[in-house]
């Protein structure tokens, strides 16, 4: 009887153990099923979010692109003032569209990113071609310089009103002639000065200057710099845009509404800008707040119409850097201890 009781007890234990193992396997399978369902749910939600992000990007990008194309189409057959206004708005909106694309690269697939970049490039080409067709540029010509000083800039003949000015191409050596023009060209190792009376509301062009110090007092309409090497250029408040192209190892100080910089290396910019600075094909460019001062600076700010309380000097868009969330390696902020405070010749 004892033997039979022991056998019965062992059978009971074995049965209990088998049942426990079965129950454990069932629990594991059930847990695995729950985890699988949860993973599928998370994957579905993630896919849904990605699709929603792309749908938002695609609809916003295409809607803005079509709006810019409509502005460009409106330039055909329009008067010069209307064409200039459309082109100015199209230029600003195209820059904003580029920024929107740059900020969206994290969730865009490579195919979608390349497609959007190609569309943007086509739009930029169309903008350039429309500007050249609607607002053909007049060639810039310098007046002869006297031995002791430059003559004051003379009014250009048959110039349209300021409202008809078109936004110039970055680094262009031509202007649209919407205001009086002046500047310096093909000089080296000189101190070059323009007074407020000479530059006020005029387009200023500085080109092919080497190791020069330039002081522009007053409020120009636009400022164009091209082929600048080893120079120090200080300018009063520019009421619209500053365009820089092929500037090397130089120091610039200027307040403006917009800054466009191309093909520039190892250059320091002391900036007051009310929109955002834009660089393209640049490296070694550094920025700090505008710090030059002269007796009539406040008056010139008033003439320019710039907002002195709004300075986006450190907000720089690099059109060659699309990695959102990662700083561009092509520009930096000048450390406070290294910033210029004295600008005397």
UniProtKB/TrEMBL annotation:
Residues 167-321 form the C-CAP/cofactor C-like domain. Transmembrane segments: none annotated. Keywords: Acetylation, Chaperone, Cytoplasm, Phosphoprotein. Residues 151-179 are annotated as: Disordered. InterPro entries: C-CAP_CF_C-like, CAP/MinC_C, CARP_motif, TBCC, TBCC_N, TBCC_N_sf, Tubulin-bd_cofactor_C_dom. One of its GO terms (biological process) is post-chaperonin tubulin folding pathway. It is found in: Cytoplasm. GO terms for molecular function: tubulin binding. It holds the Pfam family TBCC. One of its GO terms (cellular component) is cytosol. Tubulin-folding protein; involved in the final step of the tubulin folding pathway. Belongs to the TBCC family. Supercomplex made of cofactors A to E. Cofactors A and D function by capturing and stabilizing tubulin in a quasi-native conformation. Cofactor E binds to the cofactor D-tubulin complex; interaction with cofactor C then causes the release of tubulin polypeptides that are committed to the native state. PANTHER family: TUBULIN FOLDING COFACTOR C (PTHR15139), TUBULIN-SPECIFIC CHAPERONE C (PTHR15139:SF0). This is Tubulin-specific chaperone C. It comes from Parambassis ranga (Indian glassy fish).
């Amino acid at each position: 009887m004892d033997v039979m009781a022991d056998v019965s007890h062992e059978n009971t234990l074995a049965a209990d153990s088998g049942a426990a193992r079965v129950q454990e396997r069932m629990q594991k399978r059930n847990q695995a099923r729950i985890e699988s369902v949860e993973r599928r749910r998370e994957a579905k939600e993630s896919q849904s979010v990605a699709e929603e992000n792309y749908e938002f990007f695609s609809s916003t990008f295409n809607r803005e692109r079509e709006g810019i194309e409509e502005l460009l189409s409106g330039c055909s057959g329009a008067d010069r003032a209307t064409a200039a206004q459309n082109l100015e708005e199209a230029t600003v909106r195209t820059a904003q569209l580029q920024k929107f694309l740059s900020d969206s690269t994290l969730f865009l697939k490579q195919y979608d990113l390349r497609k959007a970049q190609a569309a943007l490039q086509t739009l930029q080409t169309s903008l350039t071609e429309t500007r050249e067709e609607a607002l053909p540029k007049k060639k810039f010509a310098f007046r002869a310089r006297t031995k002791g000083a430059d003559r004051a800039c003379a009014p250009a003949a048959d110039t349209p009103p300021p409202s008809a000015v078109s936004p110039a191409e970055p680094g262009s050596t031509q202007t649209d002639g919407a205001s009086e023009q002046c500047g310096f060209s093909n000089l080296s190792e000189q101190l070059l000065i323009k007074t407020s009376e000479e530059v006020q509301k005029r387009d200023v062009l500085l080109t092919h200057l080497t190791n020069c110090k330039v002081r522009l007092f007053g409020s120009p309409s636009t400022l164009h710099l091209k082929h600048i090497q080893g120079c120090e250029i200080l300018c009063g408040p520019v009421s619209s845009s500053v365009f820089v192209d092929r500037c090397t190892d130089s120091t610039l100080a200027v307040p403006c509404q917009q800054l466009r910089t191309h093909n520039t290396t190892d250059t320091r910019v002391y900036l007051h800008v009310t929109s955002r600075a834009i660089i393209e094909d640049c490296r070694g460019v550094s920025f700090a707040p505008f710090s030059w001062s002269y007796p009539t600076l406040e008056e010139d700010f008033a003439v320019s119409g710039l907002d002195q309380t709004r300075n986006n000097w450190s907000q720089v868009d690099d059109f060659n850097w699309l990695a959102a969330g990662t700083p561009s390696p092509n520009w930096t902020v000048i450390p406070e201890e290294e910033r210029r405070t004295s600008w005397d010749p």
